[in-house]
Design a protein that fits this description.
172 residues
């Protein structure tokens, strides 16, 4: 008895599962470390700042649940749903954190590092999250989709590592 090529088992995506699990675990730890600030009130004077703080508190409350969902799906081997959960996390941070920042401060674009970082956060991160989600929904190129939704985490932690190294070399 032979098995037709059409009925071959789908690839297991072992390394993709591991990578997504690591990214989701990093996001979960980051989300849990910020959850303590949910009930912090900064007593802002303007209504727009209080609204932005409320949106930030919603982000702090939802981020651990979404990151834990991504970790659960990655651990269970459901790569597609793990990718979708990580994309949802990136888009949720964009909607609840970056868009109010743009409404309050405007586009903080400049040629310096802060302006480039703001451009990446405001434009590139949501675009790669949407692209990864679309690829995952269509179940095409899951490795590329996993890389796309992992790029924001990799970029953020690479920035932290670069800052740490710069401080270690040059000090304050």
């Amino acid at each position: 008895m032979t098995i037709a090529a059409d009925t071959a088992a789908p690839p297991s995506h072992r390394w993709l599962r591991l990578g997504l699990a690591v990214i989701a675990a990093i996001e979960l730890i980051d989300a849990l470390s910020g959850a303590q600030n949910i009930f912090t009130d900064y007593y802002y004077d303007t209504a727009l700042m209080r609204f932005a703080q409320t949106l930030g508190n919603i982000k702090l409350a939802l981020a651990p649940a979404i990151a834990a969902t991504a970790l659960f799906y990655a651990a269970r081997g459901n790569v597609r749903r793990a990718i979708l959960a990580l994309a949802a996390l990136v888009l949720m941070v964009w909607v609840l954190d970056d868009l109010p920042s743009v409404a309050i401060r405007g586009f903080e674009l400049s040629a310096g590092y802060g302006g480039v970082e703001a451009f990446i956060h405001h434009f590139i991160f949501p675009a790669v999250a949407l692209a990864g989600a679309v690829l995952a929904i269509k179940e095409r190129r899951l490795a590329l989709a996993g890389l796309l939704v992992s790029l924001p985490t990799i970029f953020n932690w690479a920035s932290v590592a670069a800052l740490t190294i710069a401080i270690m070399i040059y000090g304050f």
